[in-house]
Amino acid sequence: MANMRLTNGPVLRSASALAWAAALTGAVASVGMAAEPGGGVRVTADRPRLVFRPKATTGARTFEQLRDLYKANGGDNAFAKEVGSWIERGDPRSSPISDAIRYVATGDVALARRAVDHMAEGRLRYRGTETRAEEGIWWALSYDWVHAAWPAGAPADVKAKLRRAETRIARYIVDALRDLDGNYPSLWHGRAAVGAAVWIGALALPHDKPLYDSLRKRAWGHWQQALKAARAGAWPEGVTYWG
User: Fold this and answer.
1) Which residue in 36, 47, 121, 122 has the fewest CB atoms around it within 10 Å?
2) So where are the chain's domains?
């Protein structure tokens, strides 16, 4: 996750800025999960659990570290200027990740609420193997990160909107897994990207629903296949990548 490649436009360059900030902190990237016997995956109840972890987590990368960088010297620093320029140019209408990133960098709860509104009103749909899988990743990260804006619990209207977002992410994963679970003569172009989106999305979903546990188990299996292919010298996007 720390090295996830995102390209195109101000929104995604802001995501790259977060990766840069994480590198500057020297913190270890962490995910709130653990493997279980039998191939299952257990995720923690606390958030954030993707890329960042809660403040009290020893050795983890946190929102607070990033915000300290952003606000250093009263905001007069190279990192704040660079990220600030991306924030000003980003279009929050394009994806919830734009406002979610703004929230992570600044701590402004109004921005977290805007990201939630986008997920409640916007559309997330799996469009097949040859389309941009990163859309699913943007939603998963946004969904995970904005929970931290309400440490004592989100207001009722926000909870309802987050449930809508949860349903859309889960549907995206189920639809994508149909392709990943299919029987094909070879790996296919885009498989690793779709597998990454499904895996990240599954980690973002609530920890206490058996259906989501089963989705995480399936997603973990596909992600492990991609890692094994890469380690063995194979091209994890499939033999048709250059075709």
Assistant:
1) 121
2) 9-231
